[in-house]
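Appendix B, Record 12. Input sequence as logged:
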Amino acid sequence: MIFIVGGAFQGKGAFAETHFKGKKIVVHYEETIREELLSGKDPLAEAEDFLRENRDAVIISAEVGYGLVPIDAFERKYREAVGRVNCYLAGEAEQFYRVVCGEGERLK
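Logged structural output:
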């Protein structure tokens, strides 16, 4: 699995499409995490299940942990879940990139 992370509107999708043509690209994984939380599911367990079936995928997730801590309890829970799942995905990835201003830096 290839994991790409970065801030909003930093060019993660374009980077993936340019460098990983022909691979399954999963965008906005952070929104999958939000939907799982809203459905009462455990996002980390769901990510583990997803990886079992998608070891060749390119997964793109936004970094949502920078900035102010949300006042809303659900938004804090979501922010933490995205951080924990992103850490898991980075650890499991064969390749891990951080994209800023359209430029990807390989971290793993």
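The domain at 2-106 is CATH 3.40.50.300 (Rossmann fold).
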